[in-house]
Specification:
This protein is an all-alpha fold and 51 residues long. It contains two helices and no strands.
């Protein structure tokens, strides 16, 4: 469950950062935020398995 919360937090943070940076919402920005969140979630899950 913590992995999902972490990935969602990364998604929201990355999305807010990109919206402030580019001053508009585009599909490309949302998809890049989603990809980063998925990668971060998978890495967080792997770290959780290891430790």
């Amino acid at each position: 469950m913590s992995t999902v919360i972490f990935a969602f937090s990364i998604f929201c943070g990355w999305l807010i950062f990109d919206i402030v940076k580019h001053r508009k919402i585009k599909l490309e920005i949302v998809l890049s935020s989603l990809i980063v969140a998925i990668i971060a979630g998978v890495l967080w899950w792997l770290l959780d398995l290891l430790f």
